[in-house]
Amino acid sequence: MSEFELPPGDFGGFIFDCDGTLADSMPLYHRAWQRALMAHGATFEFTWELFMSRAGMSTALTVEGLNATYGTTLEADSVSRLHHAEFLGLIDSVRPIDAVVAVARAYHGKLPMSVASGGTRPLVERTLDLIGVRDLFPVVVVADDVPRGKPEPDIFLLAAKKMGVAPERCLVFEDGAPGILGAERAGMKWVLVDRGSRT
């Protein structure tokens, strides 16, 4: 059983974020971010709070936001490549968030379900494989599939379209503020997942 309640509603489909929602991978991503930023000479501390405030955003949007906030000139592609490599070195230790995976398993075959992640396709697909849920999600949408990432609604609207479910009948499972805002902008109800590790 899940450790959170689903909101009332006649839902036609479920959309799950991957990292921090289905997979307890956020501490691994945080470590990868810290290493990549340090290697590129970042002059600020990339704290857990700062990291989580951008949870679900693409790497490019995150770097853009950090540059604007701290007056740095970090190069998004270069940071992204190193971040990706660092995370790959940690990914095998990823674990599922059991309460959320239990919901997905319970509704598999009963409702259309999809994943909408701000990550890259190779990392998202690998994560889903490692936690044993890839077969539950025929639809997987990632940041590169849409023109605008979270907190814009594009990724959720595309997931709904691919599932064949009207946006207002979708329920989104998310752990990050940008994803919650994106779900709201898409006209969808949401469930906040707060079950992952911290650091």
Helix content: 40-55%
Looking at CATH, which topology of the largest domain would you report?
Answer: Rossmann fold
Uncertain residue segments: none
Strand order of the largest sheet: 3-2-1-4-5
Q: CATH superfamily name of the largest domain?
A: HAD superfamily/HAD-like
- Give me the strand/helix succession: EHHHHHEHEHEHE
Rg is 16 Å
Oligomeric status of the shown chains? single chain
Q: What percentage of the residues does DSSP assign to strands (E)?
A: 5-15%
* Alpha-beta classification: alpha/beta
Number of strands: 5
Q: Any idea of the CATH class of the largest domain?
A: Alpha Beta
Description of the molecule:
This protein is 42% helix and 11% strand. The chain has 199 residues and is of the alpha/beta class. It has two domains: 13-25 and 95-192, Rossmann fold, CATH 3.40.50; 26-91, DNA polymerase, domain 1 (Orthogonal Bundle). Strands 3-2-1-4-5 form a five-stranded parallel sheet, with helices on both faces. Strand 2, helix 6 (121-130) and strand 3 (139-142) form a beta-alpha-beta unit. Helix 1 (26-39) packs across helix 4. The two termini are 25 Å apart. The mean pLDDT is 93.
